[in-house]
Request: fold
Amino acid sequence: MIAGPEKPTPPSSLAPVLAITSGKGGVGKSCIALNLAIQLARLGERVLLVDADLGLANLSILLNIAPKHTLEDVIGGTCSVSEAEVQGPEGVSILPAGSGTGRSGELTAEEKDRLRERLVAWERSFDRVLLDTGAGLSSKVTDFAGSADEAMMVTTPEPTAIADAYAMTKIMSGQTRRVGLGLLINRVQSASQAQELYEKFAGITERFLGFRLRYAGWISEDARVAQAVHAQLPFVVGSPDAQAAKDVTRLAQRMKDPEEWPHPGLHLPFFERWMAA
Reply:
């Protein structure tokens, strides 16, 4: 894992921030972010899940909720952070974004300053922050992902998804502040298929981009995931015995184990870094 150059801050004051991102849409990124947040909360963490896909939010849809206020309202100064916060399953705190708001997601300097003032202190009350970024290569995605302590790239075995994941990895590897980057492979048929794909992908990034990604793991192809999405119920809640739910549980347990998943060096609060991006 490649850490940034900033001077570390004592871990007791900062929560590690993991951006869950992807090179293209439709790979299950938001679904994984939501279910992973729930499993981490079940393991005793105070989790903040931020819908960072401004204007095209998915988390509210996945949970079948209609939040009165959103992250865009906080940015615009029309509500407080606590007014926008929504309590999800297992006590997960969710900061929703708007869907179909017409925002491009590009923030002015004034909006960034306003958001920083409102969110930096609030961030410190959590043990971990997960960011569900948008998909694709726009600056609104890379600014969020590049400001986190780590980013987890979600892909599927399809060639188009892999190509877009590589493109996103290339962009992030060229940023001034490099973050730890891992690869999570979704909708695989077996652990061996995932391992083989990871080795090929990591070998290419090591050869051409100069670093090797962390292997975050895999999520199995599971019909109950699609059923849960249609039912607007997280699959770890509605189908806890599903293989995909077991895979997410394994990922959450790994993230809790400092030997399996070393914590990144913690620097400035996430929202401080993001505002400076």
Observations:
- Residues 176 and 199 are 26 Å apart (CA to CA).
- Strands lie at 17-22, 47-52, 86-87, 93-95, 128-135, 150-155, 180-188, 214-220.
- The chain has one domain: 20-276.
- The mean pLDDT is 85.
